[in-house]
Records
---
Amino acid sequence: MEIDLTIIGSWLIENNLMNKPFQDLTEPEINALCEQVHFSTLNPVYSPPYIDETGTLYIPQNAHPIHRYWESGGQSIEKTLQAMGVSDEIMDRYVRKEAGGLTRHQACQIWAGCLE
């Protein structure tokens, strides 16, 4: 489970606790800190899919589950690319088979960490 440290850091700053040693925290401060840690895990940080300078689509391991087309509940590559606003050239490359694009299986083989 990933923790969004920006949430924790912001809370520490807002409560003037950033430079206070942990052992000096009061019980209410520790309880509040624990709540913030729990809250930060409920709001995970996802990395967005992206196209690099060579036109290769990358879907990071910590991408939102909606972009993981190979998993149940993930949307199609086409929908992800549409949401990204990619060029027709990129869309053709990955989606439009008649234009020489990749099949779902071919695309899955390219991306590391993709298991079917």
---
Amino acid sequence: MKPVYITLGTLFLIIGMVGIFLPLLPTTPFLLLTSFFYTKGSDRINNWFRSTKFYHEYVKNFKKGELTKKQKIKILLSCYICIAISAIFVDNGYIRIMLGCIAVVQAISMIIIKTKEEPKIIFKD
């Protein structure tokens, strides 16, 4: 079963990395899945993943329940764009209502998650 977990973790890692460059593809959920499957699959691969920049930038703060304002905005924008596109192409009113409910839940979740201060960059003269 461990090879399946490692394969799924790697698949979600690749999709998550693509999501970094494609604004409509969310990164964090796929990297959370990567973390889950690597935890089940291999300690060595999981330790490697937890030492990467991807983990520290996208997963670690999310797991701690805190995101920067910039991360929250990026998550909301990408989700709302996907929801809007879906609502445009769907003719079913019930599905549009469901999409609206998903958007509301997403906004509430971003309100609940603690906003972490952006690290301040100090330039020395």
